[in-house]
Amino acid sequence: MTATVLLVDDEVRSLDAMRRTLEEDFEVLTATGADEAREQMARREVHVILCDQRMPGTTGVEFLREARERWPDAVRIVISGYTDSEDIIAGINEAGIWQYILKPWVPDHLLQTVKSAAEARTLQHGLARLDMELRSGPGPLRARGQAGLAQARSAFDFERIVRAEGSPLDALCAMAERIARHDLSVLLLGESGTGKELMARAIHYASPRSAGPFVVENCAAIPDTLLESELFGHKRGAFTGAVDDHIGLFQRAHGGTVFLDEIGETSPAFQVKLLRVLQEGELRPVGSTRAIPVDVRVIAATHRDLEADVRSGRFREDLYYRIAGVTLAMPPLRERPGDIVPIAQQLLADVAAELGLPPARFDDDARAVLMGYPWPGNIRELRNEIARALALGDGSTVQAGAFSRKLLQGHTGAHAEQMNGHALPATGTLAERLDAIEAMVLREALLRHRWNKTQAAKELGLSRVGLRAKLQRFGLEDKS
User: Domains of the chain by range and CATH?
Assistant: First the structure.
């Protein structure tokens, strides 16, 4: 992409001379003063600003100081005579001046300086984007340029969201893919760990904004005061500890997507500030009086019932309708049991690679245990269990005994009452409930001991013959 250079000088002859020097290599905009320059930058993205120091009304340093605040991505260069050098040196840090050129300038030197500035801006922008991507989680954008973008689009394609054939996610992904093409805000609803961030990434990389940054912020992870600074930035001295200017995530994500996770946890006071940014398309860093235009797509997510929160007054209705251009509900894992084993197999391969272990597989009992558990923590809980099983395992096959006790029991407090750490069925006669508990304890012991009946019988205080009789009574599989 050809870089855009803005030339600001009240002397028309000098402006024309600089334009002729640069126009073969750059797209050149011109302005004869600060007001005209502001109008140009409000309409177009500018990569390099070349500004004369001595202009009526506003000096070059003063204008570049303003530009640093409103358009921080642009590289700033000032042109001056020797008599102005002290003023410029004093303003270098405050205005963020990248370089200054002394008059009379030489065309070749001017051209090379602007080329270097454009290259520096491209590198800076790339590093900032890489930083945002790394902060948002591991991704394939370590490879830069078009190859990296193509790799990212492939890695986060909707087809790469792991699911079984005929999964409830099929229709959801098809809808999300259609939505992605249009610049609409999206609200993702669902329990924690259902894959909302993965869906948000897929929407971003299927959208016209895919070449821009994808930035993630968990709104529940930090208090409101810090959240405002993190998202919108702050000026030096805005509060105790603000020793430097800080560019917020909205500004860094310009042209891309901001994913606001757990937006339902924000306070009404912060909701007002966020609504203003979304409505006006501009923000004011903490401690600043100047508005900065931003162009981002917002994808928000929450595990809360926001409609109920709106009715109760906990969440602003106007913000709700601003972020809920389209609402997608991610189903929990227990409502798509067919997806459990495919997801588990993918997680098994991923975690094994992360731990430096050889490829592994689940045995039949392990798969049965995975299918029999309701997964209240969804995919995040599934990943943790697989990591635990791999770490405790001693071979290439993950067996059921490597899972935690709650998985082997097959129940959680959300689905059954608890008594002394064992699951108690919620219905049935006393005898039926006791039988269910006894069968559960037998099965759990056998799974942990990998169906070694001698060890299981010893743990339970039974003889091997007594254990076999109970297995026959309860119809448990005999794997001897």
Answer: 4-128 (3.40.50.2300), 156-331 (3.40.50.300), 334-474 (1.10.8.60)
